[in-house]
Design brief:
The complex is a heterodimer of chains A (287) and B (265).
Chain A: E1 3-4, H1 8-34, E2 36-38, E3 44-46, H2 50-57, H3 59-88, H4 96-105, H5 112-123, H6 129-137, H7 148-176, H8 180-188, H9 193-221, H10 225-230, H11 242-252, H12 256-286
Antiparallel strand pairs in A: 2-3
Chain B: H1 6-26, H2 30-35, H3 47-54, H4 56-89, E1 90-91, H5 95-104, H6 110-123, H7 130-154, H8 159-166, H9 171-182, H10 184-200, H11 203-207, H12 216-224, H13 231-251, H14 256-261
Classes of the chains: A mainly alpha (287), B mainly alpha (265).
């Protein structure tokens, strides 16, 4: 059991100071912008909640939010089952385990803009490996700078390439923690592969899968660099996700007020959905 | 067993394809890249690598990145260790709320913070220093380090602490000479994740630097803007950014899976 000790606060203090410095001051700056209008020269005028109203009613915001939800939904629906399937078919011990793990983790260690640039080169219609293969070997007309569908497929494939390994590693960590005795018991009972998965493996992976789904949700919902480098939000606005749109407004048009209001709405949505996922997935533990 | 292993093999093949293409392209001449498709470099050249290793604006990008990433890893681990100890051993006022608040910092989109961060670090006079980037990355790395370390520390029985105190160890001596060596695998895993997330992040690093501490990833954007002409150079620079991560991951290969499974949710 843990003992009650208020002096433990002193241990947490450095963390608190450093994170608060980075989190609270910039957050207050954003809140400050979100209720004011500026015409430059550091002149600010009180605007109240005008920007929030404007953002919440704007079609542009709704469209970007819709694209963002679609993207995140596709990512979760593909990466989570795929990651589990790969983890299930991985060897449990022996020489190949570290080899698999190192190779699989490699995409996650590549800087995000390099990931975007790499996929850009990979997908170039005539000189990229993927582009060439699709256009000249399979005869599919593929050009992601022209065709929104191709751009979407490329962005989603890129993210699957980049982050499925995270799900694999987490699910695998859950799997190796299952004692052999469980499998032997299942074998004696004559359980099918499916019931082994459903009643032994899945419940044991539950806590790590909760982490996987939460992390994948947060990171895919906040994704910026990779799609920005890959497609720049195009063709047209077809792949302009929420954060790309936000940066366009904040730095491209320098509309600080609306951008700040949008940031706060964005943050609130992320928090709310994360909380929702967390509550639903840990509900059974509380009962 | 044999039939099953086809799935990981196919998956790893898929993962390696874009990486292969990047590496292959870095050894091609610009002419060859633009003239058409070739699966292997026809005229093998190291030109792009020579450019990177002889031009200070290129190789300083790597040095800058490595400096702030190392600095960030050091700071994150140093402050996360005592905090994780407090979370794993003691109950105190607001501990659960504090823990959750720390985790929420991972949810804030970096795009939201870019501009305020620029103003904050300009105001305190740290703009364009390695320390600025290292401190800014603490926002998402410290919570993660606390989370992972707390998980590892929870696996160490409390009797270890009590025995040490009975033997007359002071807290700092116990913590540094007994406790930290006990969880050194956890420290390794936490350091790996700090290194990884600081290394791959670009938006904040780019916003907080101009010349003196410019990261390699930002240096690369100068070729990206003229993509058609210097693809080979871009590919070579990209290839070189994979190497530090690959080295680090090799050292922690036996602990990665465990590190992920740790921590409470």
């Amino acid at each position: 059991m843990k003992t009650e000790n208020q002096k433990a606060w002193f241990f947490v203090l450095p963390v608190l100071i450093l994170v608060a410095f980075n989190a609270i001051i910039p957050m207050m700056t954003v809140v400050n912008y979100s209720v004011q209008e500026t015409f430059g020269d550091n002149l600010f005028f009180w605007e109240g909640l005008t920007w929030f109203e404007q953002i919440l009613r704007s079609d542009r915001f709704h469209a970007a939010l819709g694209r963002q939800f679609f993207f995140t939904f596709m990512i979760l629906i593909i990466e989570i089952p795929l990651g589990i399937a790969i983890a299930l078919s991985m060897p449990r011990k022996g020489f190949w385990v570290p080899v698999c793990l190192v190779l699989m983790a490699l995409p996650m260690l590549i800087p995000w803009n390099v990931v975007g640039a790499m996929w850009n080169i990979f997908a170039l219609p005539d000189i990229g490996l993927l582009g060439y293969f699709l256009n000249h070997v399979l005869g599919i007309n593929y050009d992601m700078t022209q065709d929104p569908v191709a751009a979407w497929v490329t962005i989603i494939t890129m993210d699957v390439w980049h982050w499925t390994s995270l799900v694999v590693l987490l699910a695998y960590a859950g799997l190796v923690s299952i004692p052999d005795a469980y499998y032997q018991a299942a074998k004696i009972d004559g359980a099918s592969n499916w019931s082994v998965f459903r009643f032994i493996q899945l419940p044991k992976m539950k806590s790590v899968l909760t982490i996987a789904i939460l992390l994948r949700f947060m990171d895919s919902f906040n994704i910026y660099t990779e799609p920005f480098v890959l497609t720049g939000g195009g063709p047209g606005n077809s792949t302009t996700l929420l954060s790309i749109d936000l940066v366009k407004i904040a730095l491209g048009q320098f509309d600080l007020g609306p951008a700040a209001a949008m940031s706060l709405i964005y943050f609130a949505i992320t928090l709310f959905v994360s909380w929702l996922f967390y509550t639903i997935m840990t509900k059974d533990d509380l009962n | 067993m044999q039939k099953r292993s086809i799935v990981p093999i196919l998956y790893i093949f898929f993962l390696m394809l874009p990486i292969y293409w990047l590496v292959a392209m870095s050894f091609k001449t610009t002419n060859e890249i633009l003239s058409g498709f070739s699966l292997f470099p026809q005229t093998f050249t190291l030109e792009a690598y020579v450019t990177i290793f002889t031009d200070p604006s290129w190789y300083w990008g790597y040095i800058n990145s490595i400096i702030y990433v190392s600095l960030n890893t050091l700071i994150s681990i140093a402050v996360a260790l005592p905090a994780a100890y407090a979370f794993s051993r003691y109950r105190f006022l607001g501990d659960k709320q504090l823990f959750f608040w720390l985790l929420t910092n991972r949810m804030a989109p970096a795009a939201v913070f870019a501009l305020p961060f620029f103003q904050l670090y300009s105001a305190v006079g740290l703009f364009d220093t390695h320390l600025a980037v290292a401190l800014a990355h603490c926002l998402f790395n410290i919570p993660l380090a606390v989370w992972i370390l707390e998980g590892f520390m929870g696996g160490v029985p409390k009797e270890l602490d009590e025995t040490a105190y009975v033997d007359g160890y002071s807290f700092p001596r116990f913590f540094l000479t007994i406790f930290i060596p006990t969880i050194k695998a956890g420290v390794g895993v936490a350091a790996f994740f700090c290194f990884m997330f600081s290394w791959v992040e670009l938006l904040l690093a780019k916003t907080l630097t101009a010349v003196a501490a410019k990261p390699i990833a930002a240096t690369m954007t100068k070729t990206a803007s003229s993509a058609g002409y210097e693809l080979g150079l871009l590919a070579a620079a990209g290839t070189l950014t994979i190497i530090p991560g690959a080295i680090v991951i090799y050292f922690v290969r036996n602990y990665i899976a465990k590190g992920f499974a740790m921590g409470r949710v």
